[in-house]
Design a protein that fits this description.
Length: 569
């Protein structure tokens, strides 16, 4: 009788294993140990009527349980492309598959040295995919400060909330929904977050950084869906193997929050060089630097295949005309998006603004004054162009204003007595706007054939609130609109990684994105020309050691853009 029950039990167990798609045999551990699994994508066809591309994927290396039998994985083919590489000396698990289902796997991270394809894959048909939607999502996001701020609009004050148990825990979060496309298309994946109690999160507010390195270097935007998930889109024109690194830089809006209300007045002349002891009497600030995050969620690889030339050409034409396609009106001197390849910046499209030759036929020949206004980048850029054709042949001369918050007294830090000069005043916005307007009133600048390259941003990010910065930009725009000077707004550069100094606590990449979004949208509405250098600096291969000071050679392309823009008068 006992033998009969055991026989029936094993028959039921065998039947279960043949239909259960979630079973993983321990045999896989032995097969996959110390090996890399390459899940490669074959070239796909043009988009079908449902809007998504038909693809097939071959799983090569190891064994897969297929309809109850262990067979070499390279004999199995099914839809939806994904690739994951097992790091050396790690295990890589395979889920078992049913032949009649469309599978879309997730890549999970459970610890720093263990990567796993989920044992519980989601089963659903491929989602519709539209290039236009992804293109407009990317292009419009950089100016949509309201959407960017939505998850954190009620959490902008620095406080204890950023230390809550609800903050994201990278050891429980994972990568999901990878949609890999050929060159000339947008690929995407999502980040699913969990809090420190292992509960799935339903709110946003994280700051994720994604670095993609391979034949080229890019850093794509991460979109906060405000439901505990984050979408990553990346576009490439270069086929090959890419390593994707996903880093958590902040949670619960910790990278968005404004400085304390008296932050500026407790700093020096420019609102810098505070220390944490200045705030020891406030209950929220004993841990001013405690929550500084740079935790790796995942590091995986994908292989992007070459797309069809006709499709690439069609999509690049859409990129060229993205403003019309996305119903955006702005005088961008350059699209801003591209990639670094062999230490050279390569835009996806060469330019998106209308050549002014049709309305202005006179070549500029030593006419007018070009004024370069801003922080150390403006000063260094001036030093690099003052003896080039831009300043000696096109314009009659070039000059500059070097400021942090207020104008610097001396470019040499050792000779500038305003640095570390203590005072007890809040930032004086009316004075700053008046000073800028007075500069525009100079006789040599108060002409239609004179120009200005303008940026204020980086030092405001670390010293002031977002609301104060908005007021400053609005004041500058009002001054620009009342003067004939042809002003070009340059966006603020990316911040690679915040330094662990109290006075730089609020100098974060997320705040740079937010401040840029408002300034760009405001300049666009005012009809002021814009050149966006944020993507160029965020994607660069060699990162600055202090997180902010990029080599001036990074802006070689900016010189060419200005030479073309100011070519005619």
């Amino acid at each position: 009788m006992i033998l009969s029950y055991l026989a029936n039990f094993f028959l039921l167990l065998t039947s279960f294993l043949k239909v259960n798609c979630n079973y993983v045999s321990p045999l896989v551990n032995t097969v996959a140990q110390n090996k890399s699994l390459a899940i490669t994508q074959t070239p796909y066809y043009e988009e079908n009527t449902q809007g998504y591309a038909q693809q097939q994927t071959n799983y090569n290396g190891g064994l897969i349980s297929y309809e109850g039998n262990w067979v070499p994985s390279n004999q199995i083919t099914f839809p939806n492309a994904i690739q994951a590489l097992a790091p050396p000396n790690n295990y890589l698990y395979f889920p078992a598959f049913s032949a009649n289902l469309n599978i879309h796997n997730r890549v999970n991270r459970f610890s720093a040295d263990n990567y796993q394809l989920t044992k519980n894959p989601k089963w659903y048909p491929p989602k519709p995919y539209y290039f236009n939607d992804k293109l407009c999502q990317e292009r419009k996001h950089r100016m949509d400060w309201l959407s960017m701020l939505e998850p954190c609009k009620s959490k902008m004050d620095f406080g204890m909330h950023i230390y809550s148990y609800l903050k994201t825990e990278v050891n429980y979060s994972y990568i999901s929904d990878l949609h890999l496309r050929n060159t000339g298309d947008y690929s995407s994946f999502r980040i699913k977050t969990y809090d420190t109690t292992r509960k799935p999160k339903t709110i946003g507010g994280d700051t994720w950084r994604v670095f993609i390195r391979g034949p080229v270097y890019i850093e794509p935007y991460v979109y906060d869906l405000n439901n505990g998930e984050y979408e990553v889109l990346f576009f490439t024109l270069d086929a090959g193997m890419y390593q994707i690194e996903v880093i958590l830089e902040g949670s619960l809006c910790s990278s968005y929050v404004n400085p304390p209300y008296d932050w500026f007045k407790k700093g020096d002349f420019n609102g810098h060089f505070q220390n944490e002891y200045m705030f020891k009497e406030y209950k929220h600030f004993p841990f001013l630097l405690t929550y500084r995050t740079w935790n790796a969620l995942s590091n995986f690889s994908v292989y992007v295949h070459e797309g069809s030339k006709s499709r690439i050409t069609k999509n690049l034409i859409k990129m060229q005309n993205w403003q019309l396609l996305c119903n955006v009106k702005c005088n961008f001197l350059t699209d801003g998006f591209g990639r670094w390849k062999n230490k050279t910046w390569l835009p996806y499209v060469q330019r998106t603004y209308v050549n002014r030759l049709s309305t202005r036929h006179k070549l500029r020949r030593k006419q007018g004054l070009l004024w370069i206004y801003g922080d150390c980048y403006a000063y260094n850029f001036y030093q690099s162009v003052w003896n080039t054709s831009l300043c000696t042949q096109q314009f009659k001369e070039c000059n500059r204003t070097y400021n942090w918050i207020y104008p610097r007294w001396n470019p040499d830090n050792k000779k500038d007595k305003s640095i570390h000069l203590k005072h007890d005043y809040f930032i004086n916005l009316p004075w700053l706007v008046k000073y800028f307007a007075k500069l525009l009133n100079k006789d040599k600048l108060k002409r239609s054939d004179s120009g200005m390259l303008l940026n204020v941003g980086l030092h405001y990010i670390r010293s002031t609130s977002f609301d104060i910065y908005k007021q400053l930009i609005d004041g500058y725009i009002k001054a620009i609109k009342s003067h004939p000077t042809d002003v070009v707004w340059r966006t603020t550069t990316a911040i690679y990684r915040a330094e662990k100094y109290t006075h730089k606590r609020f100098q974060t990449n997320q705040r740079a994105l937010l401040f840029n979004a408002y300034s760009m949208s405001a300049m666009c509405r005012a009809g002021i020309a814009v050149v966006d250098v944020f993507p160029l600096t965020s994607a660069i291969e060699v990162k600055p050691t202090d997180g902010i000071h990029y080599d001036v050679t990074v802006f070689t392309s900016l010189t060419k853009i200005l030479q073309e823009y100011y070519k005619y008068i």
